[in-house]
Design goal:
alpha+beta; 52% helix; 24 helices; Alpha-Beta Plaits; binds zinc ion
Amino acid sequence: MPRLVTVRLRPSGGIKEWLRGRKLADSQAASWLLGYLVYRVLERLRRELSVEKVLRPNLPPDHPFKKKPGDLEPWEARGCVMPDAVELVVDGDVDVREVARNVKEVVERVLEDLLRRGRESPWERRDDLYEPLTGWWKRVLKTAGVSPPRIELPTGLIQASVAVVDLKDRDDKRAYREAVRRVASLLATRTEVMDAEGSEGQPCSVCGRYPIVGRDSLWEELSKHLPPQLLKEWSAGVERLCPACLLKRYLGMRVLRSWYPGRGDDEGGAGGVSWIPSTAEVAITPVKVEVLNEWEDLGDDFRRTAHGFLKLVLPEQLRELARYLRCVGARDRAERLEEAAERLESGRLAPEDLPDEVARELLRRTPKAPRLDERLRDVDDPLLRALLCVEGKFWYDPRASRNLQELLETAELEDHYTPYLALLKLDGDRMGGLFSRDPDTTERASKATIEFGREAMRIVYEHYGAPLYCGGDDVLAALPLHASLDCAFELEEAFRAHLSEWDRTCSAGLAVVHHLHPLRDAIDLAYRLEKRAKEAGRDRLAVGLYRRNAPERVAVLRWEVDEERPWRLLAELADLVSRRAAYHLPRDWWEGWWKELEGSEDHDPEELLRSLLGYVTLRHREEGADEKRITELVRRIAKTAGKAAPEDGDPGREVGRALEIVLELRSECPIGGDES
Ligand SMILES: [Zn+2]
């Protein structure tokens, strides 16, 4: 008799909690760790059981996990595409305890392997870093047991739920639904506070949730020996991490580095994976892309101002890299960087004359937005390379402001300079129904979502974004502002294409946040916006603007109406309208008008919106803007919004808010434009 074996791995606090970090790298490592564990569980069960069929995850033969490192496309090494569930049809007797034991062992082995690799890292001599983690691990092993069909391992970190159900035949729909329901009910929302002895209850500075490993004094001490890339130091103190965040930050990256070894040129074992960009790096990307594209036309004035800017920020960046190199014991290389920094400052060295090894170190160790990183390897102008290797945060250095201003003005880059970036969370609509129908549907839907996920990785990469999580139908990514709307539309199109068999739509939230906005809150915002898009009726994009010291602005519009994209039309309109219009748009007025006229006899939403929007945008049009084009765009926008379904509420209000948002975004960056 065939049996269905279902395993689900779920971070104890839920996936959103698991992805929350202080750096983009924290989130990406978390997503890798989970994907890797699921893959290893799948491999193990395939070996141990006589598997007839894998329903989920239905990995194509050229899935990145199955490829040789040298064969990977650049975007395939930037993150992983893996759902959180394993479903197998197995022939013969299967004991649920046996499966649970297998899963437990896989999780234990992977984590133990991580601990071992951690000790082999360049800061191996920092045993005190691993002592508390090893101590915690030993206690976890003692307390965590298998109590099938659910295991919690390690306590508070990962839950695994296992179910085994008999199938009358391979297409036994009723038994299949029962199995799916059973596993879902096992995934209780049990969240335990992690055991972390000696922490004095202080919460982790990364997740803010679990108590930290070890005492305060340990972190103070470690901060003296660890590079700032690994342990952030503030004026008020240093980061203190809980076991889960410690695992993710220090060891999670090792999973992918060991998975893709030897692809890069880094002797430190970084493989094909360079530093994950910071939020500041993602935000500054529009400027860098523009410089890269316009370089040949920028001329001598630009080179001269670039010198001024580099002379100010590059020495500090070189010193930071040198500090990192010292921490990992590479003293000679550190010294060369420090010497170059000094000579740059005193004017004895020009930025384009950096010694080869210093330039190489700069290129290799600077976190850059994906794709830019790849393109930089082809740039042979040393000044351009040095400029584009300036790490994001130095572009926002207040001390550089005068030099930076001059640089931006000479190259007419002001419009591209923004401290904001976007976090996009996209999720398929009603996907649960698809994965609980019958074995055959699950198998095909799994294939379709994983294929969409792979394309999503490529799309995010093409838009200079950093993928943070990709569970198939579920995508979280950090994007430069100028490419965020285009990227969202492309993802939506790809989603519909891959799931066209079931006519599935998706909903997304796009949170526009300052690069200094705490990442864990920003991730919450993106999730909340996605929820709002779903609540408004699904198949929608919610955009939220979270300016510093300003109330949030949120609007939800359909992805597409009559083959028009309302968000894109509004962004186009924003290009023709003065920035000031954003502040002159009377919000109450939008809402008031609509309500008042709703009762009247000739209430025609489309007509009303057209006159309203036309009045505001023509009055505040940009100097020289084509009136006819404005009128035409307004007509098309009114047409799409006028067709809004009842659940959209007041279309005038939503469009009014959306226009405010795109105008404000426009004043930051050309968001509607093509990024290439
Ligand atoms: Zn934590």
